[in-house]
Amino acid sequence: MKVLVIGGGGREHAIVSKLSESPEITALYCAPGNGGIASLATCVPIKAAEVEKLADYAAEQGMDYVVVAPDDPLCLGLVDLLKARGIPAFGPDRAAARIEGSKVFSKGLMKRYRIPTAEYEAFTDLSQALQYVKSAPCPVVVKADGLALGKGVLICQTNEEAVIAVTQMMRDGKFGASGSQVVVEEFLTGPEVSVLCFTDGKTVKPMVSSMDHKRALTGDRGLNTGGMGVIAPNPYYTKEVADRCMREIFLPTLAAMEKEGCPFHGCLYFGLMLTADGPKVIEYNCRFGDPETQAVLPLMESDLFTVMQATTNETLAQTEVRFADSASCCVVLASGGYPEKYETGKAISGLENAEKTARVYHAGTKRTETGEILTAGGRVLGVTAVADSLKTAIEKAYEAADCISFVGLHRREDIGALALKAR
Ligand code: AMP
Ligand code: GLY
Known about the structure:
- The chain is an alpha+beta fold.
- It has helices spanning 10-19, 51-60, 71-75, 78-84, 94-101, 103-112, 126-135, 159-170, 239-259, 292-296, 304-313, 351-355, 390-402, 417-421, and strands at residues 2-7, 27-32, 42-43, 65-68, 89-90, 120-123, 140-144, 153-156, 182-186, 192-199, 204-206, 211-212, 215-217, 221-224, 229-232, 266-275, 278-285, 327-335, 359-362, 365-367, 373-375, 379-387, 409-410.
- The protein binds adenosine monophosphate and glycine.
- Adenosine monophosphate binds at residues 118, 141, 150, 153, 155, 185-188, 192, 214, 224, 271, 282-283.
């Protein structure tokens, strides 16, 4: 089978790497791919958001299956375009992708179907939003409605900060059209858990749970980023919590999407907070998490391609989804300055040594004509180690990460520290 994966980050490197183990796949392609993916798949220079071009390319090349990994092409309807050309794909169609693409949609869904989440108000009118946040209890969370590269969520400590956040989003167009509507919600506290689930619209099969580390700096300080590291499984996500999430959140969400006429196929990501009142949804993503995937897929024992096809063919109930009983840790190596301004084009050394004991997933890298690997993005590499215990996985990941250097390298030193405390 000829398979095309869409995307070019660490998540896609982890997906391509797992798919390359599948006996059914005879040729793997990735658009646009990156310096690491190039050693496993043929990279195709089409950007993930160029959905018409991608659909045409997949049809011309006779692809048997397409895996759409990033949010942009999913929200732009790439799965629908492929379907129209007779090509099956992994991922939700445009209507179902709204669960991530519009917070007004997802919050409304949770309210209508009584799925536990933060209390909120949605606004399309600037003056009404301002009036509300001037007297809302603080801290208060202001979220842009649409996609904003993970940056559209502002936790405001004071009413003044919330007024500025709303004004920047709704009047000054800080996040473009994504901020023309906003959601203002209650601030929740508790450990966070990411649960990525395979689903075919009716059956849901969760992957091993994980914990992302979103803030840029050690000690959970600094700006929010796309994610600086992950451990799996998440020790706060006990069997009891998992059963409760299945009952109160996962199954009701699937049923709600079906009732709304947009059943969800693919990977549904539940960003949860374990509050004193029970687990609540912080966000849904319509795709695999990044960097969660880099910690979760190395623990998967079942064939990823078989499971992906089962989500498309609606045969997930009969398909085994098995994970190893081990632990993993992924440490992200970023460019100095990320998530703000940073430099690229720095030579990376030590990859081979790191790869002796860990998996090194490329996120923002580029391979030169002479085979040298250079930095090419904010998050550059994800170094994942697997071990019997979480403690050993963390130690192994940092040992391997220590082998790698490039000018300006920045990482957090405490990935997994909070998880170890839970034990
Ligand atoms: P999101 O991009 O929606 O995942 O939000 C980014 C981060 O902001 C989350 O991982 C949480 O840490 C935090 N956050 C979002 N919504 C809330 C909330 N209602 N209460 C507390 N923290 C939140
Ligand atoms: N790691 C968070 C996300 O993928 O949205």
